[in-house]
Write the structure tokens for this entry.
Amino acid sequence: MKWSLTVAICLLSLYGSEAWATQRHLEEDQENEISSRRTHHKKAGPPDHNKLVEMARYVMHNCDWASIATISTQPAISGFPFTNVKSIVDGSMANSTGMPYFYMSPLDFTARDLAKNTRATVLVSLEETRYCESQKWDPEDPRCTRLMLSGKMKKVKEGTPEYTFAKAALFERHPAMAHFPPDHNWFVAKMKIAQIAMVDWFGGAKYVSVKDYLAYNYTGEEVLHYYNRLHL
């Protein structure tokens, strides 16, 4: 009896140690990833705040997720603004377009709202890159650039070159999407941008020309280099 109890305690201790070690290993990997991204953006950093179009494209391309605000269709708050988090890309890691693309299901709050009213605002923040943290700036500090795109959302037609490009870009940046439940009728959506507002320094919001924003040839490869380093 004593022997059995001793074995059981040893096994529990061993299991507990292995579980702790595994958890700690995962935490260390996460810490290293955050540290890598923080260090990278310390070295590279965003463009000068006076370069409005370049800054806007930099922030959009370097963010993995966005807050998207819609007009709610939920009965209890119908007509209220409602916000949700969505994974985002503006093209492949090596080919930024500035156009925000999303992978959505009609079962989600956001898609339901958009089916009734296509107007939305998308917000991304430089804080996502950890650059603001490295500078000891609060996320609300005006130097921690936040970009707000407003416009109308629309589905990207399946089978088109744009659909193929956008879906591949989404799956490249967010590989977990390939394993999303297949019965959720996923679709690719994008925004037809009507206005771009940005806070990137003191003095209030600035407005970026949509035409200039989309026409800008953004060639930054920081996202591509970052993900390449993660998979070395």
Summary: Residues 108 and 216 are 33 Å apart (CA to CA). The beta strands are 65-71, 81-87, 89-92, 95-104, 119-125, 146-155, 187-199, 206-207.
